[in-house]
Amino acid sequence: MKDIARRAGVSESAVSFALNGRPGVSETTRARVRRVAEQLGWRPSTAARALSGEGAATVGFVLARAADTLGVDSFFLQLVSGIQEVLAERHLGLLFQVAEDVADECAVYRRWWAEHRVDGVLVVDPRAEDPRPDLLDELGLPAVVIGGAPDVRHQGLSTVWADDAGAMASVVDELTRLGHRRIVHIAGLPGLAHTQRRIATLRAEAERRGLTEVRSVTTDYSDAEGAAVTRRVLGGSPPPTALIYDNDVMTVAGLAAAAELGFRVPQDVSLVSWEDSALCRMVTPRLSALSRDSAEFGRTAARELLALLDGDAARAVGVPVPRLTGRGSTGAARRT
Amino acid sequence: MKDIARRAGVSESAVSFALNGRPGVSETTRARVRRVAEQLGWRPSTAARALSGEGAATVGFVLARAADTLGVDSFFLQLVSGIQEVLAERHLGLLFQVAEDVADECAVYRRWWAEHRVDGVLVVDPRAEDPRPDLLDELGLPAVVIGGAPDVRHQGLSTVWADDAGAMASVVDELTRLGHRRIVHIAGLPGLAHTQRRIATLRAEAERRGLTEVRSVTTDYSDAEGAAVTRRVLGGSPPPTALIYDNDVMTVAGLAAAAELGFRVPQDVSLVSWEDSALCRMVTPRLSALSRDSAEFGRTAARELLALLDGDAARAVGVPVPRLTGRGSTGAARRT
DNA sequence: TGAAGCCACTCAAGCGCATTAGCAGTTGGC
DNA sequence: GCCAACTGCTAATGCGCTTGAGTGGCTTCA
Fold this sequence. Notes:
homodimer, elongated, alpha/beta, 6-stranded mixed β-sheet, DNA-binding, 6-stranded parallel β-sheet
């Protein structure tokens, strides 16, 4: 800035005013300063900006999953890619960290806060008993919870929520329409809030329709457990005629397990994946799946965080209900 | 720090010396200062540190891939997870950015450099004609190229290289041992350096063994192209008896395509995936694949970058040659 | 006993920017 | 014709930390 000031023949303050669009300089001077800055390829030092109270121009994102379950999930990269798209427009950086567990994640937030490293954070995988919202509230760190419940209890926290209940209802609708009355939901991690919402909704829907042979089983999202649970439930008698899996990986693993047991899909058993991805289109038969736009999910979350950083009040916004894309893995229930 | 200084009854400078392990304070004072700092939960402001010449305590990572091809790849999350593991020990942050293409990526490096946002960067997907090493050299930004060639031409750039040639040779070894003489290599993006290395090695190996019906076809890594190319080459006459795919996604798609054409795996055609992941164990038959430790790859790269930041000279280090894990998708060549 | 040297510490400057107070010069109002 | 208000700019301060240049008291040795 000193260079720019010298070349433009003004003081450093004038340069600051000019480049930040503040009043205090004439438009001709502003234009001249802008031109010189452009010529010199000047960019403000984020460190200096941060130090003089402007914030770090960075938002944080922590992924608390065991390293080995990271790989297969297509959701997060898509999400991050959407987040980036919005952040990049404002030249905000994304500080990314992988943590062991939620406690570790909390430690990361504390550190980031103390180091003034981030202006806000995006929180994923909200849990039933979740210490993170309270912590972030306490620290006063603006945050958006991705995939939370639509009730805002914390003042500083916005929520972007997906309508799990609506989606589950629509899946049950479709399956009962096809004649299925024995359904097993092979859910994800029991501690996650959306797992519990899906389980609760399924139970409510079943009750409403008088279906007695409907239940949920929780897993760790892995292909191994997906296959194991599939084998176990299909071994029961009578076996279920429809399976709902909480992610694509388990569905594919379940498909293979079903085939090994001699079950034809969809004649003997119907399969629905709660996550649509290339995977679902790569196996035979192709998997019927709930399609949602993960990148758009990320974009929405990032926009909410920007609003929060701009001083807007926290709020809860919904993203469109995922739609069931029927493919080859669902069909009419076999008559018993 | 002012608070700490006051409570410990020393000057701010003394606090700085004490907390940074520099000489200039007695051990008793140092301990006292440390204790007070701990009590107060003090963490240095990265902005202030950066401003006084200490670097940004951050390294950058840009992924230049189209948003829609991001999702399926299991490699990157594993890699990043490994990188994190090493960076976290030193409390270095990872600034992550998704870019449209290499030009965009270069713009990001320029911006980061001008803004003093990162101390170094990790570069992935090195290309045949790659502008990035020159740019980073010019900017003087320490960098590690992940998956580059083992020749160091740029002074500031270290390289972590995987022995693609050795791996390709071992695959060809195994396939010829099984009697395969007609092999098609379904490669990835033609612009990537490792794609070209694999293609060149395959050609050399074929020549050395006098195999005339061996060739490579490039793709965009997608399941769609993997399936399409598989259909095309298996439609030739005589069709190849072995296919080598540059990633897991294409292999799975190829497997489905082969099945549709009535080819049995491995009786009619053998399939090898150049990427091992849960995917490879989820389909029937399970896929023979080249296994490498992606997280370890990331750890090695991060360690090299740390060495560079510590002032060590740039160098090239290799990671272990990926090993072929034989599963159900490879078998003896069918007699023609 | 004095000079030299060292230890443990303090002082002050500065990193690059934002911001507040202040200061000439001009304009407008009565 | 004088004061007030406004315009367009400069000077100075501070953000939280590091660091080189001191400084005072102590030890050591001639």
